[in-house]
């Protein structure tokens, strides 16, 4: 199975998640951007492995619970979750804001864990979503944790697109912002990726891997609590790094 086929297989499951109903072969082919013949091969392989079943009355296919069962077992042994989640839950309860764990993937930050705020108005991204390094608190924390030479090399090859009117698009300004974050031990964004969203983050080094842990929420709630939130994050970082 080549890389394109692997991508199309993931696209297929995402199509089922998006549509929430059985889909015909032609509908699946359109959803994954593949010829019907290629889609047919993927569908039949997944059906033979027990991941899809045919819903003849609806003229389509639908996933079985096998993928869910595998995912449940995998998630239950996630070393990141075992180490982070109890402390992240405590942080969310202390602050009332959404807690995010991210890792750098090339020039982006990807969310590995999301614990949503209990407030009705909150930041609600999904695990697996990407955010630009230059415009997110998580990304800034990951950039700021890099050795200066590596950070300079990475920034030299990065575009800094404007996401909102507050996004930092100057490399010089971004480097100054990162240095401020390094000096105080935490990084912040105010409406740089999402208007009216504020976030504060710290890098955390665990077993030779660098993550970022962030708090994010509406600016009108976050701004007045910034110092306390930054203190709680730096204390969390110290605990995680001490126990690693």
Please write out the topology:
Elements (H helix, E strand, L loop, with lengths): L2 H17 L5 H8 L3 H13 L3 E4 L4 E4 L2 H11 L2 H17 L2 E8 L2 E8 L14 E3 L4 H8 L3 H9 L14 H14 L2 E4 L6 E10 L2 E10 H4 L3 H18 L1
Antiparallel strand pairs: 1-2, 3-4, 3-8, 4-5, 6-7, 7-8
Helix pairs in contact: 2-3, 5-10, 6-8
Write a concise keyword list for the protein shown above:
244 residues, alpha+beta, Arc Repressor Mutant, subunit A, Beta-Lactamase, 2 domains, two-stranded antiparallel sheet
When the domains are counted, the total is: 2
Extended strand count? 8
Secondary-structure element order, as H and E?
A: HHHEEHHEEEHHHEEEHH
Determine Rg (CA atoms, Å).
21 Å
How does the helix and strand content classify structurally?
alpha+beta
Distance between the termini: 38 Å
CATH homologous superfamily name of the largest domain?
GAF domain
């Amino acid at each position: 199975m080549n890389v394109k086929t692997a991508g199309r297989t993931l696209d297929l499951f995402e199509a089922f998640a998006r549509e929430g109903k059985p889909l015909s072969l032609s509908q699946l082919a359109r959803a994954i951007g593949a010829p019907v013949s290629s889609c047919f091969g993927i569908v039949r392989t997944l059906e033979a492995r027990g991941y899809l079943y045919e819903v003849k009355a609806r003229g389509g296919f639908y996933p079985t619970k096998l993928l869910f069962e595998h995912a449940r077992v995998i998630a239950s042994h996630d070393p990141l979750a075992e180490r982070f989640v109890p402390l992240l839950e405590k942080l969310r309860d202390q602050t009332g804001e959404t807690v995010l764990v991210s890792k750098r993937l090339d020039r982006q930050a990807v969310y590995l864990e999301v614990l949503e705020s209990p407030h009705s108005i909150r930041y609600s991204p999904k695990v697996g979503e990407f955010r630009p390094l230059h415009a997110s608190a998580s990304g800034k924390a990951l950039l700021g944790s890099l050795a200066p030479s590596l950070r300079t090399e990475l920034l030299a090859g990065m575009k800094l697109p404007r996401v909102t009117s507050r996004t930092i698009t100057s490399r010089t300004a971004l480097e100054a912002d990162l240095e401020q974050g390094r000096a105080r031990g935490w990084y912040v964004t105010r409406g740089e990726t999402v208007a009216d969203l504020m976030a504060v983050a710290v890098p955390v080094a665990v077993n030779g891997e660098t993550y970022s842990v962030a708090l994010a929420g509406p600016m009108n709630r976050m701004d007045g609590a910034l110092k306390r939130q930054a203190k709680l994050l730096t204390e969390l970082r110290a605990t995680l790094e001490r126990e690693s």
